[in-house]
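Sorry to interrupt, but I need a hand with the structure work. Go ahead and set the record down below:
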Amino acid sequence: MDQVDIFKALSNKTRLQMLEWLKEPELNFPGQKEYGYAEGVCVGQIQAKANLTQSTVSEYLSILQRAGFIKATRKGQWTYYKRDEAAFERVSKLITSTL
């Protein structure tokens, strides 16, 4: 995990919101309920909640994935995203050791 990528990912309000939403997907993405949350949340659900273009949402999710905050799972034509909770522990340790 590159420090620059980590802090770049966290420097955008919408990306922070996405991470917050993915922390409690059942609460924030009720439209996903019938499909379950085991694989994560479908990018379409995230796009609808963010009210942004598909390309912007894809770019934001890509930045979060490169920084290690989320994991993607591809199922057919759909991509699902979920938080990597261990990444938040690593970032906490990084901040503590750096500052």
Q: What stands out?
A: The mean pLDDT is 92. Helices lie at 3-9, 13-23, 25-28, 43-50, 54-66, 85-98. The first strand starts at residue 41 and ends at 42. The chain has one domain: 3-98.
